[in-house]
Structure formats: structure tokens, C-alpha cells
């Protein structure tokens, strides 16, 4: 942006003028020549003055980045990590039981036609029934379903993220600590989500699976942006927020495609089952952060404010359909589609924040807070109202502007058009 601004000023104000002078008529009727050189010099001086300002801004940005890194790295201090070590017996008792035994867990074959159980004719008939249900799902919900599935299929990125967190990581890949067993057990349960959604999409015949599979590969390759990547405080806040967001997205999809919506009972059952898993996982991470808020409220509330100031995006923020470099442009379009389809909205985001503020007693925090901690608490408590006001203003602007929907071809659904009003 700084370079673009410099170029803009250069092209507008520093180009050579072909008119050297202009003539005005004086009081006595004679022509008076006005040289434009001084005007050009002032303009060039104005443009030249931008460079130092840009330099100062860049210097300030670098300084802010250093301060930010120092802030989250303070969470790696031995006394903070000791809190995590002391929590391990509590994790054994209160978090690990939220995982279900493999023998009691659902599997994708429980929710979709199984050729081994049904035989050739039965499997064929069941697939025809599944396709008949899928035929009524509108394209905007199909797009949201792909994004939900891609999020789940990018699973390899997520345990690696947890294993970067100091104090809880699975250092050998088979550690016996409660933290390590939770990470592996959680990942094992999550693995079924992408599997079942992928298989449904394949059987439904409504998706260009090659394009979908390419999207999955790109997202795993590109990874995800993580703030404070080694801090367990920041990491667990992010995952608690994200698990609730994912549960809401799957739950909303189940409602919209079910009996009261598009009428696809199979897909509604799948999404509802996945949402229930996500709710259990959300409970685990919410409990963990609840204990950290008890043990070190100042550190916990500042970590939460740190993340919310930077906004919590879905793990698919780098999703790329192969047509939009870097994925950010396409992600913005998908966010608009999801919002208008009703699978995940700004209101949902705000509701999650309000829920976590209540769960962790942020508003009641007082004892043990530093000045920075108190400011973080006040910021968080005011943020939901601020987000709601911003949403209302954005809606009012959109109504006044009378924006028309933008047609977007989506290669996941054979380039069919999804029309959406972009912000």
C-alpha cells in the first residue's frame, strides 16, 4: 500500500507540464504572464514529502510487530508453562472423558449406503434414493457444504498446530501425557468428518469432485495463518472459538437442508452428527480455557483480546479454487455466500464471542488484573455491541446503495452460477 500511494502521488503531481505559462489580463488591460514553475515545484515538494511519511509508517509498523511478538512470546515463560504442566491430572479427569471409545463411535459407513451390507442391487437403490434427496439442495448450500468439507479434510494442518504449542505438544508422536492423548484422540474423531462428507458428495453426483479434491490439496499445501503460534493460551482460545463456529456451521447446514428446508434427510443427518461431535470438542477446549482463566486471569484475558483484535477467521481463510491467487479473494466471496445462505453469519460470530465471554466470566474479572488486563477486559465486553453496530451500518449502506447480486461461477459445481451481494 505504501508503494502504491507513492506511485500515485508521483504520477499525478510530478509529471512534466507542457504549458510553461498562462496569460491573465491586468487592471490596465495588459497581459500578465504567470509562470507555472513555482506551482510545479510546490507540487513536487508535496509528493516528495510523502516518502519520509511512508518511511516513518513502515518503521512504526515494524516496531508494532516487534512489540506484538514480544507480547505473545511472554506466554512461553517457564512460570506460565508450569500452569499447563500442573493441569495435566485435571485434563485426565475432565477433558479426556469427552472423547468416545472407538467401539462406541459412529463411522461414515453407518450414515451412508454400504455396498458390503446392501449387496449390488440394494446399494444401487440406496444411491438412487440419496441422489434424489440431494437433487433438491440449492447451489448456494452446496457451495457452503464444500467449504465445510474442505475445512474438515484439511485435518493434517490442525494437529500440527496444536503440536506447536509449548507445554502440551506430543513430542514423540506417541507420548503418554494427557495432553498428547487428547490431541491424538481429538484428531482421530475429527478424521471421520471429512470422510463422511466427502463420500456423501461423491455419491450425490452434484459436485465436480476433481475440482473439490484439488481445493483440498491446495489448502493443506498452503496451510493456515496462526497468530501467536506457540502460545497455548492463544491456541486454546482460537480452537474453542473455532470448534463452536464449526458446530454452528454444520448445525445450520443440517437445518437448511433437512425436512424444513431442502428435504435431504441423509445430508441433514450427516451434518447433525458432525455438529454433535464438534460440540463435544468445543466443550473440551472451553473447559481448558476456563481453568486457565482461573489460574492466570490476566494472561488469559489479554490473550483473548490479542486474538479478537486480529479477528478469528475460519481455518479455510486460504481456500483457493484455482482461479483466485492466494485464496483471499475467493474466501471473501465464500464468506458472503455463507452469510447470505445462513450457514455462518456475522451474528453467529458475535454470538460465539458473547457465549465465550459468559463462559469464562470475562465481565466479572477484577482481582489479579493488570492495567493492560483491565483494558483487555473492557475491550472484549464492548466488542459484541460494536460488531452488531457495524453489521447494522453495513446493512443500511447496502440497502441505500441497492447493490445488485454479483454472479459467481463456482467450479466445484460445474461452473454453475451463484449470485451473491458482495460487501
Question: What features would you describe in this structure?
Answer:
- The protein has two domains: 61 residues; 337 residues, Ribonucleotide Reductase, subunit A.
- Helix content is 66%, strand content 5%.
- It contains 16 helices and four strands.
- The protein has a two-stranded antiparallel sheet with strand order 1-2. A two-stranded antiparallel ribbon has the order 3-4.
- Strand 1 and strand 2 form a beta hairpin.
- Helix 7 packs antiparallel against helix 9 and helix 13 runs parallel beside helix 16.
- It starts with a helix and ends with a strand.
- 31% of the residues are buried.
- The N terminus is likely disordered.
- This is Acyl-[acyl-carrier-protein] desaturase.
- Pfam families: FA_desaturase_2.
What is the fourth-level CATH superfamily of the largest domain?
Ribonucleotide Reductase, subunit A
Biggest β-sheet: strands ordered side by side in the sheet:
1-2
Largest sheet: 2 strands, antiparallel
Domain module count: 2
> Ranges with pLDDT <50 over ≥5 residues?
1-39
Classified by CATH, the class of the largest domain is Mainly Alpha
Categorize the overall geometry: globular
In whole angstroms, how far apart are the ends?
21 Å
**Radius of gyration (Å):** 27 Å
How much helix, percentage-wise, in residues? 55-70%
Q: Give helix and strand order, one letter per element, not per position.
A: HEEHHHHHHHHHHHHHHHEE
**Whole-number average pLDDT?**
87
Gross CATH architecture of the largest domain: Orthogonal Bundle
Number of strands: 4
Number of helical segments with 4 or more residues: 16
Q: Provide the structure class.
A: mainly alpha
CATH topology of the largest domain: Ribonucleotide Reductase, subunit A
Proportion of strand residues: under 5%
Binding site for Fe cation 2: 190, 243, 278, 281
Binding site for Fe cation 1: 152, 190, 193, 278
Protein name: Acyl-[acyl-carrier-protein] desaturase
Pfam family, one: FA_desaturase_2
